[in-house]
């Protein structure tokens, strides 16, 4: 579960070992629900996935009454030296367990799908999905159908085709360049919007609520240009003063170093990628270590953005703080022009892939966050 997905049921009770457990149920539609039992004495967690089909057979739904009935039916069973969660309700298979950590990687790595390992088979499936580019729930349906149709453990005989097969070269851009999500990869949400759209404010709120690390490309660049030991300080300074975009290799180097030094896995990358060169550079240097979950687009008007930036500068000056060099009308206009010309094509690209989550950032910050949060739970 990315971030802190909220449970749709919370309860507590003792199980067969006479230990006290916190029982939580998470909605993972359209797949079903995931039950978690947390043993308070030693922080052991036991998981039990229940499919939609099993819920139907057990005549259960996501109402409070049904979820309470499900929680009350749970107990522990020992099999093969392992502890499992089990439900006494007919229709729910038993026992069920979800491996975690190294167990997941070992299980997946050794599982065969015909002549391929499961990761190889799934990588092929995801490559086909990226070429088709369905969006929303259709992507789930398409992938499910492809896996069923191409399951190597259900062999079928087909008559050879009389038609000559012509292989066409595959354009790497068909795959979006964002890579397949593999264990230990950084998971990234890009956050874009015009200057003053509220990216920093919303990222701070997301970071606090969902445990994402907030990385601002602009802040990293500003810190580098003020660092006397930075080899790119003067170059970065000249680009920022002109309202231009800093060369991609510099920005990506700073972002990657910050990710590696954090020791974390979930990141909000604020203010990047700002143009197609940025995106190409990301695909070139980061696709093997980072997966982009989606792009959060904070949309508002030029007037709102300009008013916010000028107010920010005035407030900083009044408080005796350092006023950003780019918080002035002339540079604001240059930055807004750059945003429309260079960054909007990136946003439209993610929209075409079904990977853009747009939120109106004109209202007060708390109202905006109420909408933003819906994309992280």
From TrEMBL:
**SUPFAM superfamilies this protein is in?**
P-loop containing nucleoside triphosphate hydrolases
Which Pfam family is one of this chain's hits?
A: ADK
Query: Does the keyword Transferase belong to this entry?
Result: yes
MF terms from GO for this chain are: ATP binding; nucleobase-containing compound kinase activity; phosphotransferase activity, phosphate group as acceptor
Which InterPro entries does the record match to this protein? Adenylat/UMP-CMP_kin, Adenylat_kinase_CS, Dpy-30_motif, P-loop_NTPase, UMP_CMP_kinase
Sorted UniProt keywords: ATP-binding, Cytoplasm, Kinase, Nucleotide-binding, Nucleus, Pyrimidine biosynthesis, Transferase
In terms of superkingdom, the source organism counts as Eukaryota
Q: Cite a single GO BP annotation.
A: pyrimidine nucleotide biosynthetic process
* Catalyses which reaction(s): UMP + ATP = UDP + ADP
Can you tell me which residues the record assigns to a coiled coil? Answer: none
The answer, when asked if DNA repair is one of the entry's keywords, is no
What NCBIfam families does its record include?
UMP_CMP_kin_fam
Q: Which family does it belong to?
A: Belongs to the adenylate kinase family.
Would you tell me the protein name for this molecule?
Uncharacterized protein
Q: What is the lineage of its organism?
A: Eukaryota, Sar, Stramenopiles, Ochrophyta, Pelagophyceae
